Amino acid sequence: MSAVTIIPIVASRAPTPVEGAGCHGGQAQMLEAARAAGKSDTLDAYARDYPKGPHDQPQSMCPAFGSLRVGLRMRRTATILSGSACCVYGLTFTSHFYGAKRSVGYVPFNSETLVTGKLFEDIRDAVHQVADPAKLDAIVVINLCVPTASGVPLSILPKQIDGVRVIGIDVPGFGVPTHAEAKDVLAAAMLKYARGEVQAGPVAAPRAGRSARPTVTLLGEMFPADPVVIGSLLEPMGLAAGPVVPTREWRELYAALDGAAVAAIHPFYTASLREFEAAGRPIVGSAPVGHDGTEAWLQAIGTTLNVGQAEIDTAKNRFLPVIKAVLAKTPIRGRITLSGYEGSELLVGRLLVESGADLRYVGSACPRTAWNDADRQWLEAHGVQVQFRASLEQDLAAVDEYQPDLAIGTTPVVQFAKQRAIPALYFTNLISARPLMGPAGAGSLAQVINAAIGNKHRFDAMKSFFDGAGDGPTAGVWESANGTPKDRPDFKADHRRQMVKLAKKRKAEEMV
Hints:
By secondary structure, the protein is α/β, with parallel strands linked by helices. Helix content is 47%, strand content 12%.
């Protein structure tokens, strides 16, 4: 490896968060420190791209998981994390739980290396050590909360080393609201880099070569069969499905930018859409879900790309009757509430309504954008309450208010519903991990949803069996009313304060 020139870093005078503080160290304090350390432009950009709700931001997993997941899914791409050890442990554990099969790099630090700038030098050394053009196309470096708040300047990392691209991004929990939007942070950074390469000269072609037909780039992670289905929907109009962004390898970014149009299947990829617009590509919102959604989407794509109405009608006539027949054959009967944080909640909601479900509420942790407005309008016209940037409290309140036959949601929503003997399904693993588009999506939800609703009697039996066993601090069977434990919220609060104080003391001792 060639010698690395050391660039001295002047220590910041801004208050530096203690190593290990992480996103639980106080959002206001971390935000103030980040701005003082020179990260205002980055944070202002995130505030514009990912506006938060009136309750600040939804409760969700660490946002950086989204960027980490995008990098880990790409061929010939290495990922290096810079953050508190506890955060890195949690992120790597979750990534492997979700099927990652490659190692994650980690640059550890302490308060001294933060203040002196040595952490940046360690990151730069790590990047040079990993940059092997025989194995990699790109290296992704992600600053978590503490390095971001401390102003660690990933922007001055080399842009490439021996042909290996270097992408440095800040993904703090106090700046990016959800892990879904963190996918956009990395996807957009890669698109921007790739767009610069395209402007500079010839780039690598897709593995399968360029399509003979104009392509539609698909924005947003989806079930593997969905791009294939979308391709069949586009074929009668003389079009083809292009790459899915986030991509699975670097060269697909060029093909994505080469698309004739971009389908914002997941509408919250604001920064990525800005890159496509800079490349002169038109954007189409919503997706081909259900009968109405597919009809409107085919029309919008065809009109945007100047396809003749006869060809658009050919596509509609080929697929819409099939979708309608499948929906009629696999109806869903029951009242449902739906919530999630993947960004496809409104699309699933449309499919449920067209399947016959009595859908009352759709909550999404993602924001309202111009590209999901058609879905919002359609759902509200069908009597569905739509809540963007939904908090856990709003999702739980919807379950209480509408008393559904089935609650679809995040883990705490599922737990909340089942405690009330209401069948529930986890959105991410059981609903969004299914085909949703075109004829394949029309019948994909009915079996699992109808089976779950049909299990209501089992929940009633369990509730009856455990009736009187107590709840919370009174859980259990007690000999007499006098022996039943009493809830002591004052004691809990005092104990919590003592634990926080003890944790701070231990951390201070570690720094000595």
